[in-house]
Design goal:
With 197 residues, this protein is mainly alpha-helical. It has nine helices and no strands. Bound molecules: zinc ion (2 copies).
Length: 197
């Protein structure tokens, strides 16, 4: 810990450094866990599903599209509406390692798999959850890239990088006046008239 303080060239209290180290670990685990979930589900789907390739691809894409809508709605109406505090920290310190608890994505997708299995059967549930978890994994990787390596993000995904940075610049999470809520796609912002180029 002292070596970290020396590296940072400052004398932050140990409690603050401990919290930063915990946040950093949580972010790393979050990206790793959420990237692993679709691979896990893909392995399960290979062993379980009786569907052939075309329906699997169709329902996988439906899950991915469904995820992108949930991502937009959750960001716009929950993080900028009902539960502002944690997200306000991310807007205030966009380069700090603020993230949801690392197991949140795994828990949500396990719950989604169970609910969909009971209503649609295991085959469709696996394909849809695979699509949804792929979307969340891509979101985690992309959001991490935009904030932690902006120069690479500007080269790889210039439009999405600009889209999200404009969200940070124009939006005050506690005032609810932001634009560009989508991270993975600009589609829902264009559809719901919250897009700003
Ligand atoms: Zn952000
Ligand atoms: Zn926001």
């Amino acid at each position: 810990m002292r070596r970290l303080q020396a590296t940072m060239g400052c004398h932050m209290p140990d409690a603050v450094l401990d919290q930063k180290a915990t946040d950093e670990l949580n972010l790393r685990l979050s990206v790793a866990f959420n990237t692993a979930v679709p691979f896990l589900l893909f392995g399960m789907a290979l062993g379980q599903t009786s569907l052939v390739a075309v329906p699997v691809l169709f329902w996988w894409i439906m899950g991915l599209i469904g995820y992108s809508l949930v991502e937009y709605a959750f960001h716009r109406w929950i993080l900028h509406g009902l539960v502002k505090h944690g997200h306000h920290l991310h807007h205030f310190e966009p380069f700090a390692p603020h993230a949801m608890p690392f197991c949140a994505g795994l828990c949500v997708h396990t719950l989604l798999l169970v609910i969909l299995s009971l209503s649609l059967g295991l085959d469709l549930a696996l394909c849809i959850t695979l699509g949804s978890s792929t979307g969340y994994a891509l979101y985690c990787q992309l959001h991490e890239l935009i904030h932690r390596d902006p120069s690479l993000a500007r080269r790889l995904v210039p439009r999405l990088h600009r889209h999200h940075m404009l969200h940070h610049r124009t939006g005050n999470a506690s005032a609810g006046d932001a634009c560009n809520y989508g991270v993975l796609t600009t589609f829902w912002d264009r559809l719901f008239a919250t897009f700003r180029p």
